[in-house]
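User: Here's a chain of 270 residues. Predict its fold as tokens.
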Amino acid sequence: MPELPEVESARAVIERAALGRLIVEVDDSDTYVCRPHRPGEIRSALLGRRLTAAHRRGKTLWCDTGDGPVLGLHLGMSGKIVIAGADGSEIDGGDYWEGRRVQGDYRWSRFALTFEDGGRLMLVDPRRLGRIGLDPELTRLGPDAATITAPEFRTAVTTGTVAVKARLLDQHAIAGIGNLLADEILWRARINPARPVDELTAPEVERLLRATRKAITAALEHGGVHTLTVIPFRRPGARCPRDHAPMSRGKVGGRTTWWCSAEQPVPATK
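Assistant: Prediction complete.
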């Protein structure tokens, strides 16, 4: 599933290749991806406008259109933003599309903007789990995980009694961390995912903050969450790449979770 680094890649694609271009056609016919808007509603709002800026907080992506409505884009589980030329060739798709300048397979395009020169911006989404909407609600998102300050992080992580992984996944507390990134962060910090947040010590919280910053930086630099260190070892029979102890698996916060059996010990039962 796209997490903060993948969504940042999509934002950068729009910023590089779509801003300032006159929109002359809009395909908003997919009533599931564009819900609750009726077919033609997004089209009417965007025709004759230009995307003027691309923004991201956490996994949420949106574009300004000058004095027009805000266009919200959510990638869902498998969506990608792809820019195509008038001839159908891929111009830009970010690190997660590998920038193939070839004729694209756009059968899974769920939403598209066509520009004056014939080029297009598309949400390509095989699983049809992305969302497109006007004026998305942003106020409930927590601070962005890539830019969160130390005081904001401490407040978000230490409030309440939930498992620390569940707190990292809470987009209202910290926006942008998904299941894989959370496992990487906790592995780097050597903290068990099930530890209650009210039991974390001050040094552990600082380790967690450093691990969050380093994991996100590494994912942004190297092409996504899938490039992070522990991700290939989230599988049966795998051993921790740091100390070679067996990897453990369980459910935390309703999500499949992996951790090092030696360096991330299960918290003692009270």
